[in-house]
Design brief:
alpha/beta, six-stranded mixed sheet
Length: 212
């Protein structure tokens, strides 16, 4: 695994390579950004949306957090990071699509399933526990049917988490209104680390199907 010093060496290669090859692209980006797609993904180091979708700088607006979760629309005081990013992308960048991308082997979803961090103090797992309690409602049926361990139960939780985030996305008035008038599409996706296959949610059937 790379250290920060290794990363600085990588920056040098970037300056000598991609920066030079894509100089025209970077010149365009000096004037601003106009991505058409927002991707909400997990912070997990193995699932970089730019790599998975093979996009150039400036082509997708990305927010990443534990388990790729979207909280419901709330007006209570607090630091609403995901909500702020969503608002900026939809209202100001005017993206045309929002994609929630979950993934396999997700530690956040596993913790939501096992509840191993439940009751921990803030700074000792409590922040994570409070964040992933958004999945408590879907955890019950999964735990009852498949238990709280094993890849079957974990994958079920990972897929359910994407659906929870899509449901929460639609509690935002700006998302609801733009989806209703056709100016915004909301999509669910799931990247399986084990085989590198991207699955897309068919909301009619509720199934995740391999992307063609």
């Amino acid at each position: 695994m790379k250290t920060f010093a290794d990363m600085i060496e990588g920056y040098g290669r970037f300056r000598e390579g991609d920066w030079q090859r894509q100089h025209d692209r970077w010149e365009q980006l000096r004037g601003g950004q106009s991505p058409q797609v927002m991707v909400i993904a997990c912070s997990d180091s193995r699932v970089d949306p730019a790599q998975i979708f093979d996009v150039d700088p400036g082509e997708i607006f990305v927010v990443r957090n534990v388990a790729a979760l979207v909280p419901p629309f709330e007006t209570t005081p607090g630091r609403h990071g995901v909500s702020a990013a969503l608002e900026f992308a939809v209202q100001f960048l005017k993206v045309r699509e929002v994609v929630v991308m979950g993934h396999g082997m997700c530690g956040g979803c596993k913790a939501a399933l096992t509840q191993d961090l439940h009751g921990n103090e803030l700074g000792e797992g409590g922040f994570v526990a409070h964040w992933i309690d958004m999945l408590d409602a879907v955890r019950g049926p999964i735990a009852a049917a498949q238990g709280t361990s094993g890849r079957g139960a974990e994958r079920a939780m990972e897929l359910a988490a994407v659906k929870v985030s899509l449901e929460n996305l639609r509690t935002f008035p700006c998302v609801r209104e733009k989806e209703a008038d056709g100016s915004l599409a909301v999509r669910g996706a799931y990247f399986a680390i084990s085989d590198g296959i991207l699955h897309l949610l068919d909301e009619t059937s509720g199934e995740f199907l391999p992307a063609s």
